[in-house]
Specification:
With 405 residues, this protein is mainly alpha-helical. It has 3 domains: 2-44; 61-154, Receptor-associated Protein (Up-down Bundle); 157-405, Receptor-associated Protein (Up-down Bundle). It is 75% helix and 6% strand. The protein has 15 helices and 3 strands. Strands 2-1-3 form a 3-stranded antiparallel sheet. Strand 1 (2-10) and strand 2 form a beta hairpin. Helix 13 (319-325) runs antiparallel to helix 14. The radius of gyration is 31 Å and the shape is elongated.
Length: 405
């Protein structure tokens, strides 16, 4: 597949030009004639090299919401699709999204459908987005679908923010406490040890001596500790990059006593929200499950959804295989079963998603309230032990001076 620059004349005499992705020039000419354009010049564009920084290229969820809602409003107002894309691309501040929008505009101008044009930018528009747009184009309800997409992205963004918020505080405290401990072992304790040595203290209290020994070993072994941390990080990346390793890690997440509850509830909320959005937009159930599985974010849940899809293709309903996976709560499966029986599964899935959004809120609050005192006690005990250990010899010297009087 290569890109060709073309120029042609429409039936009304207007000169048209643009770019088109095709196998060869003949395909471009045939597609132009099908669009009632008489091709005059078709030339293959030279390959260009574009350097992109490895950071800053992602598209924020908020930008996607704004773009999607504006597209829905413009299409509902009757503006042509190409004009909508041109206007939004010109004013988009995010460079990655702007490049994708203008690329989609060029593809649509060249005869591609909106969904096919979006498919060429998978890092910006995922399978869910592309399939919903395709359903909207097919059903003539693109503006409605885009509004549903924007609502879905907003809900999912809030869900991610809740989980990140729950993890941010303990991770911050963990990093800060690690840095403080490293600073004490590297600088503070050796200073005290030199002070005690200069004062002629040959025998130190057991706690103080233990801290001095740990400090000496820490300083000497610091290159090995750093190398070990780097190796552990690389090993972790390699583990989660492999399918068996990722399955094992995701399984541990789901089984963890407290965090596992939060992960499971968040997964149920995402599953029901995504499936409900797809089903209500007219996407077939098997295609919907394929998309939901691909966007699950957890290998164990992905395999459970794919198992359900296989059983449905064999003629079973959705509830029985979901129950067999033992991933989703019984209440969720029963509500989906009722929705399937009454023909209102999309409505039921949305209700389940709203309920589990609130459950995630409560789980986050519970996790945070439980972690805060534990972290404070551990951090206080750590710093307190170091301070006591360093001042014990000083207290002993003061007692000796007092006893001498």
């Amino acid at each position: 597949m290569a890109q060709f620059a073309w120029e042609g004349r429409a039936t009304n005499g207007d000169v048209k030009s643009g770019t088109m992705d095709a196998k060869d020039a003949t395909e471009v000419e045939n597609r132009l004639r099908a669009m009632a354009i008489n091709p005059q010049k078709v030339k293959k564009k030279a390959a260009s090299f574009e350097f992109e920084l490895p950071f800053g290229g992602s598209v924020p969820d908020r930008s996607m919401v704004v773009f999607t809602r504006q597209m829905a409003t413009m299409i509902d107002a009757g503006l042509p699709l190409v004009q909508c894309l041109e206007l939004l691309g010109a004013q988009e501040p995010n460079r990655a999204l702007q490049k994708a929008i203008l690329g989609v505009k060029n593809s649509v101008e060249s005869g591609s459908t909106f969904a096919d044009a979006l498919k060429r930018y998978p890092k910006v528009f995922d399978n869910l987005y592309v399939n919903l747009v395709a359903a909207g184009e097919l059903g003539g309800i693109l503006d409605t679908i885009l509004n549903r997409l924007a609502a879905y992205i907003e809900k999912y963004t809030k869900l991610k923010a809740k989980i990140k918020g729950a993890m941010k505080y303990p991770m911050t405290i963990l990093v800060v406490s690690t840095l403080i401990t490293a600073g004490l072992l590297w600088k503070v304790i050796p200073t005290f040890a030199s002070l005690f040595k200069g004062m002629g203290k040959k025998e130190l209290p057991a706690l103080t001596q233990a801290l001095v020994d740990i400090s000496n070993n820490f300083v000497a072994a610091s290159p090995y500790i750093i190398a070990g941390c780097v190796a552990a990080y690389i090993g972790w990346k390699a583990l989660v990059a492999s399918k068996p390793g990722r399955r094992a890690v995701d399984g541990v997440y789901l089984r963890m006593p407290v965090v596992g509850i939060l992960v499971r509830k968040a997964a149920v909320a995402k599953f029901t929200r995504t499936l409900g959005t797809l089903v209500s937009s007219g996407v077939p159930i098997l295609d919907s499950l394929s998309i939901v599985a691909a966007t699950a974010g957890n290998v164990v849940i992905e395999e459970a959804i794919n198992y359900t899809k296989t059983k449905i293709s064999e003629g079973k309903n959705i509830a029985a295989p979901l129950m067999e996976t033992k991933i989703f709560p019984t209440m969720v499966v029963q509500m989906i079963s009722v929705g399937e029986a009454t023909g209102a599964m999309d409505v039921m899935l949305t209700k389940i998603a709203d309920f589990y959004d609130e459950e995630v809120d409560q789980a986050v609050d519970s996790l945070t309230s439980m972690l805060e005192p534990i972290i404070m006690v551990v951090l206080g005990a750590l710093i307190g032990s170091v301070l006591i250990g360093m001042y014990l010899p000083i207290f002993g010297m003061a007692d000796n001076v007092g006893g001498g009087k």
